[in-house]
């Protein structure tokens, strides 16, 4: 059976895409009024909590820094190759090391931060500050089993 995940009844069941009305007729694309008559109300997944948003932002920052680090890997390999054959390094090795170490230090600091510390260090981010959002149980949309 196919379900319309925009509507649920009071037990939490999703509405079927083909709705059977009281007179026995089946409607393929029911309207909101038809769903309401059958006991299904509009439903939207809860919004991520402030902590979830902070975690997502923190992890995205870490991944971005790791990508920046990976983008300079070829320079390290080139320096190692030149050293192996006795040629001069094509890059300033000390500067390259400083840049890469700064990225690693930032990654390590972010990995050790709690979500609350991240929020304090990054005010004005995309974090939801309002805990009064109705239906916010802290689960992300990908955490729901829509076919259950």
Which helices and strands appear, and what pairs or packs with what?
Blueprint lengths: L2 E6 L5 E3 L2 E2 L5 E2 L4 H6 L3 E2 L7 H21 L2 H12 L8 H20 L2 H7 L27
Antiparallel strand pairs: 1-2, 1-5, 3-4
Helix pairs in contact: 2-4, 2-5
Quick synopsis:
The chain is mainly alpha-helical and 148 residues long. The chain has helices spanning 32-37, 50-70, 73-84, 93-112, 115-121; strands at residues 3-8, 14-16, 19-20, 26-27, 41-42.
Describe the structure.
- The relative contact order is 0.15.
- Strands 2-1-5 form a three-stranded antiparallel beta sheet.
- Helix 2 (50-70) packs antiparallel against helix 4 (93-112) and helix 2 (50-70) crosses helix 5 (115-121).
- It has helices at residues 32-37, 50-70, 73-84, 93-112, 115-121, and strands at 3-8, 14-16, 19-20, 26-27, 41-42.
- The chain is built from five helices and five strands; from the N terminus they run ββββαβαααα.
- Strand 3 (19-20) and strand 4 (26-27) form a beta hairpin.
- It is mostly helical and 148 residues long.
- Helix content is 45%, strand content 10%.
- The chain folds into two domains: 3-42, no CATH class; 50-121.
